[in-house]
Amino acid sequence: MSIDDAIDWGYELFLAKAADHLPPEDVVDITLEFEERGAVEAVLPGAQWIQELGGPFAADNYTEIQVGLLDEQDEFEVIHCRILIALDGSQPPRFIWKS
């Protein structure tokens, strides 16, 4: 899967699961503000995934999709969800939700 495909799929997954994993006020915030300040980006998987997955993994086969709201400098102010996606489809996506 390409990075662009992973971004699209990650955003679809976020939309499908956000109401079940985020407080209602966060769902309202991201819904109302996404058009102006929202972002979905692919980045290299961060170190927190080693702890989440229980050990090291082949990071070059994965991308982390971040979904959130940007500040005035176009940097994430709030990340509502981080999604780890295996680019070869060998593993199901994993989520870290804003807490």
Automatic annotation (TrEMBL):
It holds the Pfam family DUF440. SUPFAM superfamilies: Putative dsDNA mimic (SSF102816). This is DsDNA-mimic protein. The lineage of its organism: Bacteria, Pseudomonadati, Pseudomonadota, Gammaproteobacteria, Enterobacterales.
